[in-house]
């Protein structure tokens, strides 16, 4: 669901950038204030897992693919503020290191996939499902909020596209919802499985007892072994934009050696695998530094 360069223009880009900065500032403030902070390593492992999972595009029919968003997973595992920040850091690394999404639309992508994508399911899950004593009910809640996460992000993306293009808003929404409804079902099912696998009966512990090692191992397996076999079909957004005639191909503002998740000059399999592994390292280091900074800042504030 990464909006590429030049697909949006006009006031949408600066407005969404302002909303993104404001939303991240609020999430950062909430992260400082929350009593249950995830460890920096767990914070990083969840972000790394999401980065690896997002590389695995899967076909959904009609020559279209989808990929895991992971925003609800981040919010459920880390708590809403840290989930928003983890997603924002993943999206930022994807834009800066892999030219995925583009810098001019980074604000919109953070708003869609991080602030709304993680914020909405995090708030809903905390309010209605986290304290439920029944594990099946909690997993049902995971499924529901994960589904809504994708639908909400796709709906907001549709609104942004309708403002910045000449295509009718109704046509954009219909074109976006057809593939993203299927993607949302896959997302919800995968998130419920991931939560059951990595947290199990510890789901209510807000990440403190989740299996961090399994998350990191799974991230590297997805990047090194599975990602080269990901579907090459256009994703739901690209498919919808192509159908509507608003898909614009353009060069990113700058091209990195890892653009499009490959290492230039390498054999195809290893080009993707090594780029993915490098991305996981970058994500983990970035997120661990952010987590350490939040913890040290929170400690300094408490001492005052």
- Residue-averaged pLDDT, rounded? 88
Would you list the SSEs in sequence order as H and E? HHEEHHHHHHHH
Output the strand order for the largest sheet: 1-2
Radius of gyration: 18 Å
Beta-strand level of the residues, as a percent range? under 5%
Major sheet: 2 strands, antiparallel
Name the shape in a single word.
globular
Low-confidence stretches: none
Which structural class fits the helix and strand makeup?
mainly alpha
Helix content, binned percent: 55-70%
Question: What does this protein look like?
Answer:
68% of the residues lie in helices and 2% in strands. It has helices at residues 12-33, 40-54, 71-78, 80-98, 106-128, 135-164, 169-198, 212-226, 236-244, 268-303; strands at 58-61, 64-66. Strands 1-2 form a two-stranded antiparallel sheet. It is globular.
Secondary-structure blueprint:
Layout: H1 12-33, H2 40-54, E1 58-61, E2 64-66, H3 71-78, H4 80-98, H5 106-128, H6 135-164, H7 169-198, H8 212-226, H9 236-244, H10 268-303
Antiparallel strand pairs: 1-2
Helix pairs in contact: 1-4, 1-5, 1-10, 2-3, 2-4, 2-8, 2-10, 3-4, 3-5, 3-6, 4-5, 4-10, 5-6, 6-7, 7-9, 8-10
Search tags:
304 residues; 68% helix; 2 strands; mainly alpha; two-stranded antiparallel ribbon; globular
In short:
This protein is 68% helix and 2% strand. By secondary structure, it is an all-alpha fold.
């Amino acid at each position: 669901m990464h909006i590429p360069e030049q697909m949006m223009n006009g006031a949408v880009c600066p407005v969404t950038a302002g909303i993104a900065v404001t939303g991240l500032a609020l999430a950062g403030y909430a992260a400082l204030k929350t009593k249950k902070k995830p460890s920096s390593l767990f914070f990083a492992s969840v972000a790394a897992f999401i980065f690896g999972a997002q590389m695995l595009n899967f076909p959904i029919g009609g020559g279209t693919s989808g990929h895991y968003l992971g925003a609800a997973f981040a919010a459920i595992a880390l708590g809403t503020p840290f989930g928003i920040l983890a997603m924002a850091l993943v999206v930022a690394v994807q834009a800066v290191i892999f030219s995925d999404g583009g810098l001019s639309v980074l604000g919109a992508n953070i708003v869609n996939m991080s602030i709304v994508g993680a914020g909405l399911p995090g708030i809903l899950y905390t309010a209605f499902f986290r304290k439920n004593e029944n594990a099946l009910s909690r997993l049902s809640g995971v499924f529901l909020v994960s589904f809504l996460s994708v639908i909400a992000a796709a709906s907001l993306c549709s609104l942004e596209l309708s403002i910045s293009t000449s295509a009718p808003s109704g046509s954009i929404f219909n074109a976006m919802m057809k593939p993203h409804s299927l993607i949302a079902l896959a997302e919800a099912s995968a998130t419920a499985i991931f939560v059951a696998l990595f947290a199990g009966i510890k789901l209510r512990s807000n990440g403190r007892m989740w299996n961090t090692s399994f998350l990191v191992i799974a991230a590297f397996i997805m990047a090194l072994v599975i990602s080269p076999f990901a579907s090459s079909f256009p994703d739901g957004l690209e498919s919808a934009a192509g159908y509507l005639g608003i898909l614009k191909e353009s060069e990113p503002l700058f091209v990195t050696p890892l653009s499009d998740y490959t290492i230039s000059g390498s054999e195809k399999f290893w080009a993707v695998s090594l780029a993915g592994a490098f991305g996981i390292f970058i994500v983990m280091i970035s997120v661990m530094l952010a987590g350490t900074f939040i913890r040290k800042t929170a400690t300094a504030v408490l001492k005052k």
